[in-house]
Amino acid sequence: MINPPPICQISWEFDKLLDIFKVRQPKNILEIGMDKGGSLYQWALNAPSGATIVGVDQYVSYSDEATKNDYGQDKIIVAIGGDSRATETIVQVERYAPFNWIFIDGSHRLDDVIQDWHNYGGMVARRGIVAFHDIAIHTRPGMESDVPILWDRIKRAGYRTEEFIAVPYQGWGGIGVIRF
Questions:
Q1: Pairing between strand 175-179 and 160-164?
Q2: Residues near 113 by Cβ (< 8 Å), separated by ≥ 6?
C-alpha cells in the first residue's frame, strides 16, 4: 500500500462530502480532474466491492495497474488521460455511464466548467449526486476560479443543492452538492 496521495481540498469540506459518499455507497463513480489522485483514492477506499471508478485528467501520472494494486483488487479503476471537453474523452467516459456519483474538479475557467457540467452532468443516474469543488468565491492571488458563477446559475435553476464552505469568505475551496 502506498502513502495516500494528498487531497487538494479543505479537510472539513471534503470530510462532509465523504460522509455522503459513505452513506450512499455509489457503485459507479466519475471524477473530472484527478490531479494527484487524492480524492480518487478516497472514493476507491470507501466504495463498495465491485465499484467502478473512472477518473479523467489531462495529466494522468500513474498507470491503471499501479492504481489497482494500491486501491484494492475488488474495484475497477479506469484512468482516462485527456481533455475532459474533448469528444474522444467524452465517448470513453460514456462507456461507463450512468454514474451514481460525479465529482467535477477540472478546469476552473467558466467556459470549461460549463462544458464539464453539460457533458457529464447528464450522465448522472437517477438519485445520483454531482458535486463541484471550488464553489466559494476565490480571492487569493493565483487561485482564480469561475466555478462560483456556474454554481450560482445551478442554484437559481432550482436544483436541490447543499454547500460545504468551512469558513465564510475563506478565499478558496467550497464544495457544492446537487442531489438528483
A1: antiparallel
A2: 104, 106, 107, 132, 146, 147, 150
Type of residue found at 136: A
Q: Would you state the cell numbers that stand for residue 92, as one nine-digit string? A: 470513453
Summarised one tens digit per residue, pLDDT across range 7-57 is 889 999 999 999 999 999 999 999 999 888 899 999 999 999 999 999 999
Where in the chain are the domains?
11-179
Report if pTM > 0.70. Answer: yes
Cell of 63: 498507470
11-179 has which CATH code?
3.40.50.150
* DSSP 8-state secondary structure symbol assigned to residue 35: T
Q: What is the pLDDT of residues 75-133, one digit of tens each?
A: 999 999 999 999 999 999 999 999 999 999 999 899 999 999 999 999 999 999 999 99
Q: In angstroms, rounded to a whole number, what is the distance separating the alpha carbons of residues 172 and 165?
A: 9
Order of strands, sheet of 124-133, starting from the edge strand that comes earlier in the sequence: 76-81, 52-57, 28-32, 99-104, 124-133, 175-179, 160-164
Cα gap 152→73, rounded to integer Å: 40
